[in-house]
């Protein structure tokens, strides 16, 4: 967000979410938040979650932005297909783990 806006991050959550929606739209999903609502409780970091979901890293190494982003996308798709097929993930859109949920 800082790179895209060339400004400091907003100080208030409501302003942060407003800018986030303007940049990325309404359908922003936080995998860490969604993990809490999976029938098979998922926990840990990205690599552990991917292992549990049987998702393989397609390219690169851990802690590289592109590789981690792609693995996160694949983990989200797998979570959606396994745990959110009936209801869909939409009720979790826009919720950011650690900022809103304690």
Automatic annotation (TrEMBL):
One of its GO terms (molecular function) is poly(A)-specific ribonuclease activity. InterPro entries: CNOT7/CNOT8/Pop2, RNaseH-like_sf, RNaseH_sf. GO terms for cellular component: CCR4-NOT complex. This is Uncharacterized protein. It comes from Arabis nemorensis. The lineage of its organism: Eukaryota, Viridiplantae, Streptophyta, Embryophyta, Tracheophyta.
């Amino acid at each position: 967000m800082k790179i895209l806006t060339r400004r400091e991050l907003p100080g208030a959550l409501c302003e942060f979410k407003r800018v986030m929606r303007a940049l990325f739209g309404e359908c922003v999903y936080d995998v860490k938040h969604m993990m809490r609502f999976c029938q098979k409780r998922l926990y840990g970091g990205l690599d552990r979650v991917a292992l549990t979901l049987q998702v393989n890293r397609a390219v690169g190494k851990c802690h590289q932005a592109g590789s981690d982003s792609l693995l996160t996308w694949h983990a989200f798709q797998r979570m959606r297909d396994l745990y959110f097929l009936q209801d869909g993930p939409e009720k979790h859109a826009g919720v950011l783990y650690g900022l809103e949920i304690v």
